[in-house]
Write a structure and sequence with these properties.
about 130 residues, mainly alpha
Amino acid sequence: MSVFRVVRRGLRSLPRPSSARLDAWLRAFSYADFGYVVVPASPGPVTLTDEQLAEGWRTTSRILRRSTSTARKVAAVEEREWYLEEFARRNPRGFDAWLASGSRAPDDLMPYLGEHRLEPAAIDWDELTGGRG
């Protein structure tokens, strides 16, 4: 009996994984890099409320300040990228205002997340152009 037949018979005897399990494995391996795997705990920030999005941002801020693990910091930065992309998708004007503020309050996105909380940005064109109009 050839080795291939033995392996094929052995593989056929294994239970077939569900599509959800295969998806989880593929996602885990797609994040594999230098010995660590990052698997998102949730489907992403799209399903989060504004408060949950802001809390996730604050949590990752604390992780970046306190963690000594490089892998954990990289994972936090990747998670923050999700939060920023979702923030920009939900409220582009609020995101622009947050960036224009120099992100003076980097841990708190809530004043900029809600449309009703956003003040229209006032642009002083004379200051920007140096008085040349």
